[in-house]
Amino acid sequence: MAEDVGALLRRLRERVGLTQEQVAERSGVSVRTIRRLENDRSTNHRVATLNLLADALRLEEADRLLLAAALAGSPAAAAAEGAAGPEADPRSGREPAPAAAATAAAAAAAAPPDRVPVHGRLAEAAEELAVEVRRRWRREEAQRRVHDPFPLPVRWTPAPAALTDRAENIQRLGPGEPPCAVDLDGDLRSLAEVYLRIPSGRMVVLGRAGSGKSVLTIRLALDLLETRAPGAHRRVPVVFSVGSWDPSTTALRDWLVGRLLRDHPHLARRSPAGTTLAAALVDGDLVLPVLDGFDEMAEGLRRDALDALNATAAPLVLTSRRDEYAEAVRAAHAPLVWAGCIELSDVTPEDLADYLPRTARTVPAARTSDDDVSGSTWDAVLAELRTCSGPAHRNLAAVLTTPLMVVLARTLYSESGDRDPAELLDGERFPSARSLSEHLLAGFVPAVYRRRAPERDAGGPRSGARYADAVRAERWLGRLAHHLVRTDRERHDLAWWQLGHELSRTARTVALVLATAVVVALADWSVGLLLVPLPAGELLLQGALMGPAAGLGFGAVYAMVDRSGGATAFEPTRVRLTLRAAHAGLGRRSLRTFLARLGQGLIGGTVMGTGCACALTLQRALAAGTPLAHPDVVRGTLINMLVFVLIFGPAAGLVFGLMAALEAPVDVSTAATPVSLLASNRATAGRQFLVLAVALTLAIAFGGYLVVAVLRTVMGPLNWGVQDSLFIGTVCGLGGAAAYVLAFTAWGQWIVLARVWLPLAGRLPADPAAFLEDAYRRGVLRQTGAVYQFRHERLQHHLSRAFRGGHRDFAPAAFGPASADGRPGDGRPAAGDVRPAAGDGRSG
């Protein structure tokens, strides 16, 4: 019978005469972890950890295969153990017998190194994740029309030695072992095969902007998933946009878990070990991180990121532009350790000749015989590129060397019936390669937003037909691209819950004050018609005064939360309200969250109580014609303020604090898209409104009645009856719940800011969600889990520059006399830079 992992690891360690402490010092693995492994107290062995221990023990290939077979729980472990007898002992200096080598090869086939033992719920989660990733990227390839008419050739060559680790490290060899040649040449069709040739499972993909890195990562993920047999429990390749990772504040493992939870909310369910399924998958080495866009990280973070990646031994794939990666390597004094490195090659003229004609409409050609001959609009351009060598031809040949520019040219000319690609050879119109690139980028959005008959489905015309105006679409897309630009770094995730942050803090606060004032006023009028026999004029005045008072209360709390860095409090919640979580109390939520909500409720309730007291006093004084300075009015106002503060403050604080005890993880069965996340968040906000409305109504109605009863024993008679309790409680319950949803949930801010405020200001379309979805269908945006991203980074930069250049809040930089070295003498930006005239460029 085969040894288990712990016994085998202990035997191998004792065979080379090392203590646990010595192995820990060599491997970097803690002594505690080694003890747990050898005593079989660890049931979730990490492949990376065992690889480190194997390196520290300097195991031969047969022993490594034996350990891999034991790790996978394969019956081949026993056979491999028999093969690794004295003749395979590294101390004997003899080579293993041929039979032993054959048995070791069988063990390797039975237990590939990227297989880990998982069972039950974790295995199901890995299979679900694989299905979701496969479905998502197949849809993405269809949206990009990668296979129409065939994939554009993407080739590569091994990267320079200065950017690649040593061959013996990539192959994870021991001291003195000669490395073998690893062939890394290939093309898009052989990508997975090339990756699997790398023993370490770590690869870096370099290429310039638009060279096809993103398409390559998608194809790699799909190819690896195609070779992943059901139940094999191999790592699931997941593409992560690494540009949003801040290694100075977040560990790689925690960031990966957070991205999985955002893009695949069903992984928030608990594993048998008590952690989330996302954390269990990452910790169990069941996720292969494909980190796309290393160059998109802030310049000051790249070295820290490379250091963090070098501190791990886990397989991964990293993509980057060459220059940015090379700079990080120089700063860190080391490339990505154990990683093979490839560099994408340019598209060749032969590739263009094969590809572009097949994307275009056919046109009649000159008849040279009795047979009909047809060609494409690209034939003349390609012929001139082959025969001419003037500046215009060289510019076009230089531009059409990346898949991005080829796809843009195809979109602009092959899919348009009124444009001739021969204009690309106009040297006067396009005197440089840059002007040609900008022309292709500028023509992309108008080309994909050409007016055409709307497609229909069972529900009628598609909503995207409303956004066929290319001018307005380009303006809105430019604003969205500019929205992603920050002073510290450029973002790439276009999230619907962050669109309102284009507004300044003051504008957001004013908008939410107005929104909460309106809903509270409407609640006052609606309830007053049913419960209070007041004249219509007095009721109208009361609501008009109560609304702003409540709005100021909610606005004050929102401003404090927003300025204290509480933006994450307004992100979409992935929780549902359920009474079954109530018995757990604060066990599922930290005490800090409870106290924060309690404090916010106390402050908001105090401000709202003070404002409502003043509003009621003003309403009654105006109705009765009593001067506001009358002693009875002042005394009544002070009493009302005291009573309302004692009622509203504790009630709001207690109700909002206990909301934390009524939350539990959502059990979502499919991966979130922006639209589905918006829908689920809308449902969650509806449930929050119902719970808050009932809780606030009861707390204020009954709590108010009890507070007044207590105060009567001290202050004497107070005018507060059952009808007053019901009226105030119902108004505050309905209005307060609605105001809370609008001000403190992602869906509420989406409604107030992105659906109302920004469209009224002409800064977004009336239905931003439909516009974003339409842009995704047209190929301008792509979906990455719950967020959108621009299809190409260069397109985002172009749209952002075009928006700033045509916006009145931005002005070209002014320059003083140049210094002797040719730089601007006053230290201002270089020529051609467009920067905000003041502030951050956001208006309103």
Mean of the pLDDT scores? 77
What is the overall silhouette?
flat
Helix/strand-derived category reads alpha/beta
Q: How helical, in percent, are the residues? A: 40-55%
Q: Please state roughly what percent of the residues sit in beta strands, choosing from under 5%, 5-15%, 15-25%, 25-35%, 35-45% or over 45%.
A: 5-15%
Query: Major sheet, described briefly?
Result: 7 strands, mixed
Query: What is the alpha-carbon Rg in Å?
Result: 33 Å
Strand order of the largest sheet: 2-1-7-3-6-5-4
Please work out how many helical segments DSSP would assign: 30
Identify low-pLDDT runs.
Answer: 74-118, 364-374, 453-464, 579-589, 665-671, 811-844
Distance between the termini: 74 Å
Q: Give a count of the beta strands, DSSP E runs of length 2 or more.
A: 17
Explain this structure:
It is a single chain. The protein is α/β, with parallel strands linked by helices and 844 residues long. 53% of the residues lie in helices and 8% in strands. It has a seven-stranded mixed sheet with strand order 2-1-7-3-6-5-4. Strands 8-9 form a two-stranded antiparallel ribbon. A hairpin with a 2-residue loop joins strand 14 and strand 15 (787-790). It is flat, with a radius of gyration of 33 Å. The relative contact order is 0.07. Mean pLDDT is 77; it is low at 74-118, 364-374, 453-464, 579-589, 665-671 and 811-844.
Provide a quick synopsis of the model.
Helix content is about 55%, strand content about 10%. α2 (about 20-25) packs across α4, α5 runs antiparallel to α6 and α14 crosses α15.
